[in-house]
Write a structure and sequence with these properties.
8 helices; 67% helix; mainly alpha; Ferritin
Length: 251
């Protein structure tokens, strides 16, 4: 009987192959178990799924300079870039001074909201420009709403950047109140913004300028944002019954 059973078993190759197929399955199962154990071990010691990444550590001056040097090796900056960033600091400073008069000069709620956006955005941008210059070991000018100090013929002169208001225009705006302030502010800020847009165009027209990543992004933002604000201020002037200057072309 035993001999017959063995003979019958050996006469079925499928039974033998089935026995052999069990081994790879067991090996795969063991491999999967080991993998799951490894994941469980990592999960105990690693960061939890969905947890926010740790905040980046603030860079010191040395790290900022090193990073700026690396960026400049890839995207060299030019003298035109330095002039643009330095000059725009003063340009922004005057816009902020104009905007801060709105609450004390009887400006409408719509104009006050506009001035708040100007103050917030351009204050941050002055910080960006100052940091960019400092990281490249360039002089960082003190923001001057009267213009940029330049040395010509051995003497220092304060030069207005394109679109900046003259001393007489600033006095006229400071003396205005209520709706007159609204009208003058919008008119003068349109002039001011157009000057900033022209500075961007001059930058990009200079050979090799605007290649630095920070300069390119900032200048592009100035062109788009201030063109948008110009068109918004033109509509506000129309609502006041004024004849606004022609709208600039969109970039």
């Amino acid at each position: 009987m035993l001999y017959r059973l063995v003979s019958q078993t050996s006469s079925f190759p499928n039974a033998v192959s089935a026995t052999r197929r069990v081994r790879p399955y067991n090996n795969r199962y063991a491999a999967k178990a080991a993998t799951l154990a490894a994941f469980a071990l990592f999960g105990c010691h690693g960061p939890r799924a969905g947890s926010p990444p740790p905040p980046p550590e603030p860079m010191g001056d040395a790290a900022a300079i090193a990073r700026a040097s690396a960026d400049s090796a890839r995207y060299p900056y030019t003298e035109a870039d330095i002039r643009f960033m330095s000059g725009m600091i003063h340009h922004h400073a005057q816009a902020i001074k104009m905007a801060r008069w709105a609450p004390t000069h009887g400006a409408s709620a719509a104009v006050v909201r506009l001035t708040e956006r100007v103050i917030n955005a351009q204050t941050d941008e002055i910080t960006l420009m100052s940091n960019w210059l400092s990281a490249r070991r360039q002089p960082v000018p003190q923001p001057n709403p009267e213009g940029m100090t330049m040395t010509m013929g051995g003497e220092q002169h304060v030069m207005l950047m394109p679109g900046m208001l003259s001393e007489a225009q600033m006095k006229e705006l400071d003396a205005a109140r209520g709706e007159d302030f609204d009208r003058l502010f919008l008119t003068f800020m349109i002039q001011h913004h157009k000057g900033a847009v022209s500075m961007v165009k001059e930058l990009f027209a200079a050979q090799g300028a605007g290649q630095d990543e920070t300069v390119f992004k900032f200048a592009s933002d100035v062109q788009v944002d201030q063109t948008t604000e110009i068109n918004r201020m033109l509509e506000m002037l129309l609502a006041l019954g004024s004849n606004p200057p022609p709208a600039p072309r969109r970039p």
